[in-house]
């Protein structure tokens, strides 16, 4: 057979004599702050004059490079695009395959907890979802600890989550109290972390020794003409009252009413949601469903 046929046959068998561009890690969906390493090579022999150039979307990106690999640190969305390399030697220039990279903003995973109202001692399943097509994540799971300074939470790693988990699920056995959880995802070396998820809560109607919430007047349904007072009691000197409202809103007393001492008084609002007390010492009270209706 002639040289040309042999050439074609070699190509069909996968032995391309062209340049080959590869990336490490070899996925193509990246996030701001991650890094990627490019490598441009040929299958045949090289003389000492070799160098390569890399183009991004057809424009000069790396005009002259003489090392085996090129590492790009701290990707940003502007690095999204099609990459191709050209391998140059004295006598020839060879063109590589194209690799399409996308770089998205650092993701915030979404945590779901199920069930929201476990019966005492039941298991609760946490699910952490990173909302981009992506690979290689491991997952870290945290307990939410109320922060005094603002209305945020700090995070305490849950036992068993120290090294991350491969699965995006985490099961908590024997849930008895109201509690908040968060997650985040990580991958790569050096490790790249997603943002923390928003906190999600599981609620318990049971009054526990450390904290309790009492509502007055004592009913589930209230009318906006009568103020409702929510009192926190228990093993802490400072409490705050929180409310969760569907689909995904988290309020604190000062938005809905007035907090004086450990009592929150709410007047003239129409809402429904779940209320509970929490303290910076990490205590959470029983939770209560309340519906406020307009009075006609
Ligand atoms: C990445 O490389 C590994 C091992 O070389 C391979 O198993 C995997 O399929 C590759 N993934 C992609 C997206 O190319
Ligand atoms: C490159 O070209 C020179 C002269 O033009 C020739 O002597 C040499 O054999 C060529 N090398 C290859 C690898 O083709
Ligand atoms: C985490 O990794 C360290 C070091 O590799 C190991 O000693 C430890 O047992 C691991 N912890 C868990 C919970 O797997
Ligand atoms: C609050 O309402 C949910 C349903 O929306 C219910 O499952 C839960 O038992 C209620 N909790 C209390 C303490 O009444
Ligand atoms: C109250 O809190 C303190 C410190 O957190 C703890 O040592 C103590 O056991 C708690 N008491 C009760 C009744 O929970």
UniProtKB/TrEMBL annotation:
One MF annotation (Gene Ontology) recorded for this entry: transmembrane signaling receptor activity
Family matches, as InterPro entries: Ig-like_dom, Ig-like_dom_sf, Ig-like_fold, Ig_Fc_receptor, Ig_sub
The organism's place on the tree of life at top rank: Eukaryota
GO BP terms: cell surface receptor signaling pathway; immune response
Position of the signal peptide: 1-22
Classification via Gene3D superfamilies: Immunoglobulins
Domain Ig-like, residue spans: 107-185
Protein name: Ig-like domain-containing protein
Taxonomic path: Eukaryota, Metazoa, Chordata, Craniata, Vertebrata
């Amino acid at each position: 057979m002639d040289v040309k046929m042999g050439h074609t046959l070699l190509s069909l068998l996968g032995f391309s004599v062209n340049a080959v561009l590869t990336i490490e890690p070899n996925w193509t969906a990246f996030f701001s702050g991650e890094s990627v390493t490019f490598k441009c090579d040929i299958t045949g022999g090289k003389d000492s004059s070799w160098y390569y150039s890399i183009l991004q979307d057809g424009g000069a990106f790396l005009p002259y490079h003489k090392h085996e690999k090129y590492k790009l640190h701290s990707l940003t969305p502007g690095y999204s695009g099609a990459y191709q390399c050209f391998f140059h030697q004295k006598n020839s220039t060879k063109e590589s395959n194209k690799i399409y990279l996308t770089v998205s903003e650092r993701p915030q995973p979404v945590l779901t907890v199920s069930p929201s109202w476990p019966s005492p001692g039941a298991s609760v399943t946490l699910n952490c979802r990173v909302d981009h097509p992506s690979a290689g994540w491991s997952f870290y799971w945290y307990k939410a600890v109320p922060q005094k300074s603002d209305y945020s939470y700090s995070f305490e790693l849950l036992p068993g989550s120290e090294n991350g988990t491969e699965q995006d699920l985490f099961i908590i056995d024997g849930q008895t109290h109201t509690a908040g959880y968060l997650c985040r995802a990580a991958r790569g070396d050096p490790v790249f972390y997603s943002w923390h998820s928003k906190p999600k809560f599981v609620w318990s109607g049971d009054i526990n020794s450390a904290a309790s919430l009492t509502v007055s007047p004592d009913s589930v349904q209230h009318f906006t003409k009568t103020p409702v007072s929510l009192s926190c009691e228990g093993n802490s000197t400072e409490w705050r009252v929180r409310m969760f409202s569907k689909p995904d809103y988290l309020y604190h007393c000062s938005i809905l009413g007035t907090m004086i001492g450990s009592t929150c008084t709410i007047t003239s609002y129409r809402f429904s949601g779940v209320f509970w007390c929490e303290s910076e010492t990490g205590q959470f009270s029983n939770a209560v469903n309340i519906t406020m209706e307009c009075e006609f």
